[in-house]
Amino acid sequence: MPGWQAVYAELGPKNFEIVAAAQDTAGEEAAGKFYDRAKATYTTLIDADHKVSTLFHMVNVPTGVWIDEQGRIVRPPEVAYTTAKVLGLTVGGDRYVAALRDWVERGAESPFVLSAEQIRARLKPRDPQLRRADASFRLGVYFHQAAQEGLADQYWELAQKLNPDSWNYHRQDWSFTPKEATQNWFRKFRALAGRPYYEPLNLATPE
After folding, report:
1. Does pLDDT of 2 surpass 70?
2. What CATH number corresponds to the domain at position 102?
3. Cα-based distances in Å from 85 to 58, 167, 200, 204
4. Is residue 22 within 8 Å of 49, Cβ to Cβ?
């Protein structure tokens, strides 16, 4: 998040806006401190209902979506680091920010802007099992907010079984047992067995 503050300081004056949406059922108490630590001056939201990750089909963090001045998605959800990371694969945050700069400068003329057909090709329709997983997760959120923790855990566990590739489901569940969260993350990460932690960043441009 501090990296995005630096990006915003550079690009904000060029009619660029960042809208950050923290997905955390515990709300301000859990997520607000990260915005404070980053000294964020861009728009910051806390989405206790996980509506953003549901609407944009986000399964891990950080994930970015590019939206133009007309409200159109010009790049669908993808891993959005500001620096290079190695997490089962090399996550090209430096390349991502370079592409972002190009878009801010050139707008619709940027080669990194995707057509509606290209976006549809990259988005994966959710099958009935994944839709059931999302509904189960949202029920877990509802029951947690209603202080019915037994039912919340039941539906969160079901969501994780139906869609084990969603790290967001696991992260939210683990957030309530912070002493075990790191251990649980490493256990799940090691179990990937060669599968990527993030979908590879695809910044290919037309020939």
Report:
1. no
2. 3.40.30.10
3. 19, 17, 12, 19
4. no
Identify how many contiguous H helices and E strands the chain contains and give both numbers.
9, 6
Is the pLDDT assigned to residue 206 strictly greater than 60?
no
CA pair distance 64, 79, nearest whole angstrom: 6
Among 180, 130, 125, residue whose Cα is nearest residue 160: 130
Question: What is the extent of the structural domain holding 169?
Answer: 128-190
3-state secondary structure of 20: strand
66 belongs to a structural domain: yes
- Tokens 């939201």 -> residue: 45
CB 159 within 8 A of CB 140: yes
The pLDDT assigned to 86 comes to 56
For residues 117 and 132, state if they share a domain: no
Question: Which two structure tokens, joined as six digits, stand for 59?
Answer: 């399964």
Span 127-150, pLDDT tens digits = 999 999 999 999 999 999 999 999
pLDDT of residue 207: 45
Q: What is the pTM of this model?
A: 0.88
Instruction: Give the span between the Cα atoms of 139 and 179, in whole angstroms.
Output: 25
Query: Are 47 and 172 in contact, with CB atoms under 8 Å apart?
Result: no
What's the pLDDT score for residue 205? 64
